[in-house]
Amino acid sequence: MYDNGIVIVGGGHGGSQTAASLRAEGYDGRLTLLTAEREVPYQRPPLSKAFLKDPTHELLPLRPQSFYDKHAIDLRLGAEVTAIDAAAGAVALADGASVPFDRLVLATGARPRVPSVPGIDLDGVHTLRSAADATRLRAALHAANDVVVIGGGFIGLEVAATARLLGKIVTVLEAVDCLMGRVVAPEISRHFLALHRGWGTDVRLNTPVGRIVGESGRVVAVEDGEGNRVPADLAVIGIGVVPNVELAAAFGITVDDGVQVNDFMETSDRHVLAIGDCVRFEHWALKRSVRLESVQNAVDQGKTAATTLAGKREPYRAVPWFWSDQGDVKLQMVGLSMDATESVVRGTPDGGSFSVFHYRGDRLVAIDSVNRAADHMLGRRLIAAGISPPAEVVADEAADLRALVKAPAGA
Asked: In sequence order, which residues have a C-beta less than 8 Å from that of residue 318 and are 6 or more positions away?
């Protein structure tokens, strides 16, 4: 089908899944998976939790090396792609080598956003995205006493919770007036604010960082915009990510806060597809452009890219879902609540187990759940099937929502 084969750039969840799905779809040509990292593609969610907490915790491979060997997937570690060479029909590597392709999949992911504040380059200031990041942060965290987390999103709060479990003095500085405000309902945000404060973390909202203070090249404090100092022998930046679009942009592919793709993961160049955290696409339910940062999105888009390359035209229609483990509390989200017009609470927030159902008009579009795994799993089925229970039914804990998806067709 392709003489020079398919090359996948990026060894995260999406890149590994694309390779596996191509073989499952029956593609038997040359298949190369390039990753700049030195590790066999691994599970990333534990990096901010179990891996960070336990010095003996090892990376969990997505698939063992034997899988790639068995399926004739040429997995190349430490292979940093520096350019796409249109004339040669190949990608150029940092070591001077090149790898030819007929079709290319960009699964380049994203990198931590770094604020432009004085002191950001001091020793003791960390970001967390890769295994190498996590290994450095783990060693520093276990040796630290005063930890300042800059940013109250998922990564920041997961690291903060882990640091508290290790007995560290933890301060979270969030620039806006709520935690995780970009992705969860106000009820969820308030609940997690109370949780973290209850665990002993000093959470400061509306507190942008002014500078990071150092002595002898090492962080000793973080100073907010008003000049108030918080002692720190370790600072962790968690203010979001930036999509890695440079390869695509240099090649002339359309980018706009992400590599632009269609429903089949195809870019503006017919030879190139893109998936995962680095892409922006028109969402089938929202009817507008989005960029999603989640393992599920990367994996499902990898499957879609594989079907496209295998000659099938199956548009991406997966219902998005996300999760965050903070301490002993599990937050799970399904759907996209950004355009919701009404929210209904089911369960007991005071008891630590509840869900917030989000509606756009009469249509159920998303559910945020705290320690309510059954609601989350049910929500994935409801939203996928287009079933929207009335808000008053959701609010009634006695109502059996499971009956809605158990009903026979046509009932």
From this structure: 296, 297, 300, 301, 304
